[in-house]
Amino acid sequence: MDTASLYQPEPVQLEWMEKGRGRFFITINSQEVANMIVGHVGNDLIVYHTEVLPEAAGKGLAKKLLESMVAYVRENNLQVVVLCPYVFAQFRRHPETYADIWKNKPGQ
User: Considering its fold, how many domains does the chain have in total?
Assistant: First the structure.
């Protein structure tokens, strides 16, 4: 992949599959370079995993996925069950930002 093209990511997209499984993802030149795997159960969005390809690392793509997921959760009045280490680290680092949507906060 041409590294110069890494600065032109497409907007975050959301794709739902069978049984409530889905993913937020970002493509560059039709190649998926980042994704966040999620599941929808009742009023919960479970975040399992976030991954960015090494050649796209350091471009803020994981943060874009996080922002899109959070917007989706708020728009749909859901709560987030965090299983993904990246999302957990961000929620823990900024608890005031995510307090309204973080269902499985430590200590609850």
Answer: 1
Q: Is residue 106 part of a domain?
A: no
- 61 vs 76: CA distance, rounded Å: 23
16-36 pLDDT, tens digit each = 999 999 999 999 988 999 999
Which of 7-11, 14-18, 81-85 is predicted with the least confidence, judged by mean pLDDT? Answer: 7-11
Predicted structure pTM score: 0.90
Cα dist from 73 to 5, 9, 26, 38, 102, whole Å: 30, 22, 18, 11, 10
User: What is the extent of the structural domain holding 40?
Assistant: 3-98
How far is it, in rounded angstroms, from Cα 105 to Cα 13?
27
- Nearest of 14, 11, 27 to residue 76 by alpha carbon: 14
